[in-house]
Write a sequence for this structure.
């Protein structure tokens, strides 16, 4: 295995053994907020992200093809936290869908009355349900920089109107599928993000969904029974860690604050509760080998700040 890239949360390996040209995507227990990897891992997080993504990839394959080859044909040391994937040329854009007015989207709305050029009705309050889901893309910035909100027209200027339309329409179709299944399980999917690529580097090839899908790291989930616009809503995602980190007085620059044991436990509990509510399955920790790979599950003080996926929603 050749390490190609160590991101904020995932490590990417190339497997060229026996003529293969696959990618093995390994999810770590690292947690990042505001584009900074915090020095404390969340035990089992990598496996939870991987297993929930696999559950969702299976249920959205009719909407868009995905990069999954196998979750079993991976090195034993990464069992449960790794996926063998097709090699893709990823598009440098984060495709964000929003169904509710929250996070950075609410801040933008307060300033401009719009998000990424999409005008919204006046008078909405925080966590309001939007009249319809909207596409609010961002850039994928180089390492050390932050992603920036862009408009649909910006995406079209880079990729052409045909690809931009496919990205927008596919993103919104995926969001609607996810929101419907989440609601059936008593959850609201407030917003989410996707990454797409093309096989073989074909600039005109079919769009393929990569990275992760509808996880606690890429999406905001709320319990439907507790949601009320204008009031704080308990979340099953890393918004809990974001809120805690800001409460410490942290200025959002590296290094981030060490996460205390009670916040680690509460975060892990939320990730597990989401998995169990969404899938209807009891969470069982998969076996983990003795070798975790570069950057995976390292202890306090050993993880540099990295940037691979946006903290967009």
């Amino acid at each position: 295995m050749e390490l190609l890239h160590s991101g904020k949360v995932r490590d990417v390996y190339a497997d060229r053994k026996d003529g293969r040209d696959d990618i093995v995507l390994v999810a770590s227990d690292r947690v990042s907020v505001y584009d900074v990897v915090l020095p404390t891992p969340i035990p089992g997080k990598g496996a939870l992200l991987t297993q929930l993504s696999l559950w969702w990839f299976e249920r959205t394959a009719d909407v868009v093809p995905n990069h999954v080859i196998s979750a079993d044909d991976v090195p034993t040391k990464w069992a449960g936290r790794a996926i063998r994937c097709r090699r893709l040329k990823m598009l440098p854009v984060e495709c964000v869908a929003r169904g509710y007015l929250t996070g950075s989207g609410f801040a933008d709305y307060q300033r401009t009355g719009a998000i990424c050029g999409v005008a919204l009705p006046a008078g909405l309050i925080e966590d309001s349900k939007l009249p319809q889901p909207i596409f609010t893309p961002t850039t994928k910035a180089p390492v050390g920089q932050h992603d920036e909100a862009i408009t649909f027209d910006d995406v079209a200027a880079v990729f052409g109107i045909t690809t931009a339309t496919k990205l927008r329409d596919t993103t919104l179709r995926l969001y609607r599928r996810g929101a419907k299944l989440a609601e059936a399980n008593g959850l609201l999917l407030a917003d989410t993000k996707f990454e797409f690529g093309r096989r073989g580097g074909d600039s005109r090839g079919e769009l393929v969904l990569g990275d992760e899908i509808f996880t606690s790291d890429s999406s905001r989930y709320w319990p439907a029974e507790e949601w009320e616009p204008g009031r704080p809503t308990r979340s099953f995602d890393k918004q809990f860690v974001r809120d805690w980190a800001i409460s410490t007085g942290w200025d959002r620059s590296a290094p981030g604050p060490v996460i205390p044991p009670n916040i680690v436990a509460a975060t892990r509990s939320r990730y597990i509760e989401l998995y169990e509510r969404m899938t209807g399955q009891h969470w069982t920790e998969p076996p983990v080998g003795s070798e975790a790979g570069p950057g995976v599950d390292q202890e306090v003080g050993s993880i540099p700040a990295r940037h691979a996926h946006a903290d967009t929603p």
